[in-house]
TrEMBL record:
<dbReference type="GO" id="GO:0004315">
    <property type="term" value="F:3-oxoacyl-[acyl-carrier-protein] synthase activity"/>
</dbReference>
<protein>
    <recommendedName>
        <fullName>3-oxoacyl-[acyl-carrier-protein] synthase 2</fullName>
        <ecNumber>2.3.1.179</ecNumber>
    </recommendedName>
</protein>
<keyword id="KW-0275">Fatty acid biosynthesis</keyword>
<keyword id="KW-0444">Lipid biosynthesis</keyword>
<keyword id="KW-0276">Fatty acid metabolism</keyword>
<dbReference type="InterPro" id="IPR020841">
    <property type="entry name" value="PKS_Beta-ketoAc_synthase_dom"/>
</dbReference>
<dbReference type="Pfam" id="PF00109">
    <property type="entry name" value="ketoacyl-synt"/>
</dbReference>
<comment type="pathway">
    <text>Lipid metabolism; fatty acid biosynthesis.</text>
</comment>
<dbReference type="InterPro" id="IPR016039">
    <property type="entry name" value="Thiolase-like"/>
</dbReference>
<dbReference type="InterPro" id="IPR014030">
    <property type="entry name" value="Ketoacyl_synth_N"/>
</dbReference>
<comment type="similarity">
    <text>Belongs to the thiolase-like superfamily. Beta-ketoacyl-ACP synthases family.</text>
</comment>
<dbReference type="InterPro" id="IPR014031">
    <property type="entry name" value="Ketoacyl_synth_C"/>
</dbReference>
<dbReference type="GO" id="GO:0006633">
    <property type="term" value="P:fatty acid biosynthetic process"/>
</dbReference>
<keyword id="KW-0808">Transferase</keyword>
<dbReference type="GO" id="GO:0005829">
    <property type="term" value="C:cytosol"/>
</dbReference>
<keyword id="KW-0443">Lipid metabolism</keyword>
<dbReference type="InterPro" id="IPR017568">
    <property type="entry name" value="3-oxoacyl-ACP_synth-2"/>
</dbReference>
């Protein structure tokens, strides 16, 4: 028998707040965290509008010396994980056995900022000036490794690297492990800190980024005038816990994770398969595992990147899967406020989906001004809406043809 898996804690570090509750309050109120970058040299790249994490102090969450030996993406993950564990009321070695607590945190790019900085040192000053911590600061699995060390978690320690689906795949893969009894608790999610000049240059040259000069309107998912995504950073973390383990300690339970779909397009390195066929299969797989009908889904937190292809194909995939129920659903993209956190996106959006269900509030898609005749669903334009949400879905789609869908249910 597969074990039931619930969420008992949430944590986040985002462009709209340095904890999950502030983030959620701002998301509900349509507050944008997108602005001109404070770190990018605008003379070197043609895009400087980003979703930066603001006023983040690593020393509030970890030893100052150790923080300097971590990549920024790892710092975010450590902070969000500690907040999630505190929210869950869990402490390794006290009410959770170290060997039964795992960590599964994905990152699409890892420490690219460290790579850029240390490569410049190597070019300009030679080998001896390169930090001995370069490799541990940049490899994507190190966020999970650092969280494990900081928490004392000795169970499964893993990292799903699937581009923009990394956070969602990490949660889904951790879900599978708890289902199978591999761990009682897994700290799961995603993290990213890739706002660098080289990252922007790469995305911009492939015409993926918005060139809209207005920071507050650059990310406009599902709008006819969308022209690309806005790069964001941050981390989202869930505490996944086996249901009876949670009940035995009297834990509060946000929701149950009941379905996970993961598929590949086998089509193109960056462009989704026509009409997002792979995304549609991921949604169907998740619904089938959940043991529900598609009519029971109340709300979808969409991948919704604000690119011409994604928003069209994801809309078509939703209509393919949900048929007439697609027009009873509400679908929104919170990337309109946070930007696209790449490997951290699916995890943050899972946090948002769970809090949306808790409060009965569907977050808005802000900056929605001009409807696109090809996109005809309810995208919760501009203002949040109250609804009694019992089952919610979150989609994440990544370069390389990675598709991940998570389904959560109120318990």
């Amino acid at each position: 028998m597969k074990k039931r898996v619930v969420i008992t804690g949430v944590g986040a570090v985002t462009p709209v707040g340095n904890d999950a509750l502030i983030t959620w309050e701002n998301i509900k109120n349509g507050v944008s965290g997108i602005a001109e970058s404070t770190t990018i040299d605008k003379n070197r790249v043609d895009v400087s509008i980003v979703g930066e994490v603001k006023d983040f102090e690593p020393a509030n969450y970890m030893d100052k010396k150790e923080a300097k030996r971590m990549g920024r993406f790892s710092q975010f993950a450590v902070a969000a994980s500690k907040m999630a564990m505190e929210d869950a009321g869990l402490k390794v070695g006290e009410n959770a056995v170290a060997e039964r607590v795992g960590v599964w945190i994905g990152s699409g790019i890892g420490g690219i900022g460290t790579f850029e900085e240390e490569f410049q040192k190597f070019l300009n000053k030679g080998q001896r000036r390169v930090s001995p911590f370069t490799i541990p600061m940049l490899i994507p699995d190190m966020a999970a490794g650092r969280v494990s060390i900081e928490l004392g978690a000795k169970g499964i320690n893993n990292c799903s690297v699937t581009a923009c689906a990394s956070g969602a795949n990490s949660i889904g893969d951790a879900f599978r492990s708890v289902q199978l009894g591999v761990a009682d608790v897994i700290v799961a999610g995603g993290t990213e800190a890739a706002i660098t000049e080289m990252t922007i240059a790469g995305f911009s040259n492939m015409t993926a980024l918005s060139k809209n000069p207005d920071p507050k309107k650059a990310s406009r998912p599902f709008d006819k005038n969308r022209d690309g995504f806005v790069l964001g950073e941050g981390s989202g973390i869930l505490i996944l816990e086996e249901l009876e383990h949670a009940r035995s300690r009297g834990a509060k339970i946000y929701a149950e994770i009941i379905g996970y779909g993961a598929t590949g397009d086998a089509y193109h390195i960056t462009t989704p398969a026509p009409d997002a066929e792979g995304a549609a299969r991921a949604m169907r797989e998740a619904i089938e595992e959940a043991g529900i009908s598609h009519q029971q889904i109340d709300y979808i937190n969409a991948h919704g990147t604000s690119t011409p292809y994604n928003d069209l194909y994801e809309t078509n995939a939703i209509k393919t899967v949900f048929k007439e129920h697609a027009y009873n659903l509400s679908v929104s993209s919170t990337k309109s406020m946070t930007g696209h956190l790449l490997g951290g996106a699916g995890a943050l959006e899972a946090v948002i989906s769970i809090l949306a269900m808790r409060d009965g509030v569907m977050p808005p898609t802000i900056n929605y001004e001009t409807p696109d005749e090809k996109l005809d669903l309810d995208y919760v334009p501009n203002v949040a809406r109250q609804k009694n949400l019992q089952v919610v879905m979150s989609n994440s789609l990544g370069f390389g043809g990675h598709n991940a869908t998570l389904i959560f249910k109120k318990i």
